[in-house]
Write a structure and sequence with these properties.
single chain, alpha+beta, Arc Repressor Mutant, subunit A, two-stranded antiparallel sheet, 3 helices
């Protein structure tokens, strides 16, 4: 699976609540919860099953006026962590 063809979607059984620029995720199966900062919240909101890494990098860079290389590296790490915690499904 190529990185260009990979898209990200919320995993089933994950509840999300946004408050004050942060998002709290609850994995229903075991009650584990995770908190995302403002950038992570934006990424979570955009992981709707239609966007890949390139689109997510563009969105974050546009919103936060950040360096694309740094954003790409950080997003790869965040997406891998969310997928590893069974919060995101990697499709493609």
């Amino acid at each position: 699976m190529s990185a260009a063809a990979t898209i990200y979607a919320h995993a089933e059984g994950v509840l999300a609540q946004e408050a004050h620029g942060e998002t709290v995720l609850l994995r229903v199966s075991d009650g584990s919860y995770y908190t995302l900062d403002e950038v992570g919240s934006l990424v979570w909101a955009c992981c709707d099953g239609s966007k890949g890494l390139d689109e997510l990098v563009e969105l974050v860079c546009a919103r936060f006026d950040a360096d694309p290389d740094t954003v790409r590296r950080d997003l790869r790490e965040l997406l891998a962590e969310l997928a590893g915690e069974q919060l995101l499904d990697v499709v493609g």
